[in-house]
Each structure stands twice: as C-alpha cells, then as structure tokens.
Design goal:
Two copies of one chain form a homodimer.
Chain A: H1 3-8, H2 23-33, E1 45-50, H3 53-62, E2 75-82, H4 94-111, E3 115-120, H5 125-134, E4 141-150, E5 168-170
Antiparallel strand pairs in A: 1-2, 2-4, 3-4
Helix pairs in contact in A: 2-4
Chain lengths: 173, 173
C-alpha cells in the first residue's frame, strides 16, 4: 500500500480482533509519531502506552463517553503535550505538535494493517483533567488525545474520496 | 514508497525547482487533506490555494519572518479553520481538525515526490490577523497554517529514525 492509499484508506475502527500487535510494529508506530514536523523542532509530544486491559479500561473511563473502543483495544496510546517544551508555551504550538504526532500514529498503524480510532481528549477539561489525575501527571503535561489500536474485525479497506470542492478557494476566498 | 516510508522520509523542504505541480497532483494532495478524522466529523477545515507568484509573495509577507520559502514555491496552501463549523466552536476542536488536514497535505505531497514546508501561523495573532486581512476573511474563518510546496532542488530522501525512548512511558508516566 503506497503513501496516498495509506492516507485515503484510513477510517475509524472501533471493533478489534484478539490478535496482539507486535513490539516491532509498536516501535514503528511510535517512530512515525515522532517523525512529523514540530514548531521550531521543539517536539513537545510525549506518549503513555499500554497493552494492559486493566489500564485500557481506566483510560476509557477517564476519557468519558464514546471511549468504549479502548476497552477492546490491544494497544492504547495517550498522546500528551509538555507545555514547557513546546514553542510559545501553554498557549503556543504544543497542541499542533501533538495533533501531528497523533495523526502520524494512526496513519502508520493503517500502513501496517492495524486499525485505530482517535478519541478526543483536549481541549475538553473534564477529560484531560481526569487522565492527568489517573497518571499523576505534573501540571505541565497535558493529555491531548487518546488512541485505541488493534487489528480490525472487518479488515476490508477502501480508498475513499472525501474531496469537497466547496472547501477549495482558488487565489481568493 | 509505502506508507511507513512516506511518513518517515518527510522533511521540511525550502528550496524548490521550477517544475510545476500538475492539477492532478494538487487534487490528490487536497483529497488527502480532507481524509483525516475530524471531531464529530464536523470537518472545519478550508483551503485557500494559489500557484500565482504575486499571491504567494503576499502570503509570505503576511506570515512574517521565516516565510521566504513561499516566494519560491510552486503551490501555496493556506489551511483555515471555520470556527462556526468545528466541534465546540472557537475554543474547541477546529485547531486539531486543521492540524490533521495540514499533516495529510504534506504527507501526500511527499508520497508524490513533492517537497513542502509547514510555516506556522496560528496561534500567532499577528500572522493570522494579517492573512485574514489579506484575503478579507470573515471573523469565523481563521488562517491556521501556511504550507509551501514544490519539487525539491535536492530530491534525495532518506528514512529517518527520530524515535526517542525517553518520550515513551509504558503503563505509567
């Protein structure tokens, strides 16, 4: 599957098989997560990862409604931002560094045939505060996105065309 | 080039050749930009695109220092967020929708052998206000990221390993 197909065939996957994800694939996914651009290359992203069902369940509960996919996932990655490390600090680029990292994680998973769903966390304070408490994080470390991974029960993939001409403004708005 | 290689070989490119980017490739890049997940699928991203040197120069000037690569680019894409369309509005997920879109744009370009550099815009008010003014945007449309594209003068690509073990926290911080 080439790069374009990897991007266009990504979809949210919420039902996972029992098959474990190999350590090699986890390393590849994380390497991809660290390969995006970051503002002034300050790389404010951090990753809490787990394959343990008990911890996946706790993350799911902390992240609130619609986070059930994590309970059936084989891997959970909580992307966090260290606001002390990001360009322009608390109100600066850390959110963007983390979003790029998270998108790379799910695209790399898709390239490997692994499904994922991105469960929103930041900027919802109830969610990121609960996760901050769960992992006893210092105040400079903010949980940003909660990602669930596993081999999809339905492994069919299709190249989707989500282009909308109304969103493209040529030379002017 | 497969999906993993596409992600790991991405780098910022600031020097472009004279070769134009085809309309077909521009369409593919934009389709990729619209293929990421978006919070509640609300797809708050919008794209202003130009191949005109005079407009590229104006965008470069509005986006301030370090935006010179745009002046030599063959394509500029200004990713904007419509805060009225994004989940949770002004302080909600639109920034994340746009960051995912922008990362997909540059990865798709890399998959096609096209180089790019992501020039930071939001959350720097001086930059996004100047761009908002340049394109006479309504207050709900916020310029988010300024991307310059072109065929690289140096077309060598390498798979980079930017993995940092210190950024991976297993089961706990």
């Amino acid at each position: 599957m080439n790069g374009i197909e990897t991007i266009l065939s990504r979809k949210s996957v919420r039902e996972f098989s029992d098959r474990d994800i190999s350590n090699e694939d986890i390393k590849t996914i994380l390497t991809a997560g660290m390969s995006g651009p970051a503002a002034l290359n300050m790389r404010s992203f951090e990753f809490i990862i787990t394959q343990k069902p008990s911890i996946l369940e706790k993350i799911s509960e902390a992240n609130g409604p619609y986070s059930g996919a994590l309970k059936k996932a084989k891997l959970g990655i909580l992307v966090c931002g260290d606001i002390d490390k990001g360009y322009l600090g608390k109100d600066g680029y850390w959110v963007i560094d983390c979003a790029i990292a998270a998108q790379n994680l799910i695209l790399a998973a898709n390239a490997l045939g692994i499904g994922s769903v991105w469960l929103g966390t930041y900027p919802e304070k109830a969610k990121y505060s609960a996760l901050q408490k769960l992992f006893s994080l210092k105040s400079n470390v903010i949980p940003f996105a909660t990602l669930a991974f596993g081999y999809p029960l339905d492994s069919t993939r299709e190249i989707r065309d989500l282009y909308e001409v109304e969103k493209v403004h040529i030379d002017k708005w």
